[in-house]
């Protein structure tokens, strides 16, 4: 058996705020929306060559039967490759996105910064 593809899905307390962040600020493009009409409970976004699913908490029982809850503490970290870390951080800061770590060059050659998404998930911006 081999893995064909990994598709991360995040649970969110506010799908609207999550879409403002991942779609509006990071440039995601909707590839799937359920339901198609009215307020969605799940949205898939294409971000560059990747996809991310966002599911609304409280929109009904989950398929797996386990309660949905946002991450608490450092449970997940998304790595987002951008063209310009500093410019991206400034654009996000202007939109009141919390900056956890200012842009800094790493010894392995990448420039890295951390921001927090609306549910407190860490998002590493790098080039």
From TrEMBL:
Extract one GO molecular function annotation from the record.
Answer: metal ion binding
Pfam families xref list: Glyoxalase
Q: Which InterPro entries match?
A: Glyas_Bleomycin-R_OHBP_Dase (IPR029068), Glyas_Fos-R_dOase_dom (IPR004360), MMCE/EMCE_epimerase (IPR051785), VOC_core (IPR037523)
Q: Does Oxidoreductase appear among the keywords?
A: yes
Q: Does the keyword Membrane apply?
A: no
Biological process GO annotation list?
L-methylmalonyl-CoA metabolic process
Enumerate the spans annotated as VOC domain: 4-127
**Name of the featured protein:** Glyoxalase/bleomycin resistance protein/dioxygenase
UniProt keyword annotations, A-Z: Dioxygenase, Metal-binding, Oxidoreductase
């Amino acid at each position: 058996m081999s893995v064909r593809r990994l598709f991360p899905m995040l649970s969110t307390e506010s799908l609207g705020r999550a879409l403002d962040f991942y779609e509006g600020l990071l440039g995601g493009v909707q590839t799937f929306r359920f339901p198609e009409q009215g307020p969605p409970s799940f949205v898939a976004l294409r971000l560059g060559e990747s996809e991310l699913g966002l599911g609304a908490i409280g929109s009904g029982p989950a398929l797996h039967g386990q309660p949905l809850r946002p991450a608490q503490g450092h449970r997940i970290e998304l790595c987002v490759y951008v063209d310009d870390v500093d410019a991206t951080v400034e654009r996000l800061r202007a939109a009141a996105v919390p900056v956890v770590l200012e842009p800094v060059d790493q010894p392995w050659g990448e420039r890295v910064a951390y921001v927090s998404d609306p549910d407190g998930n860490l998002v590493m911006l790098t080039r």
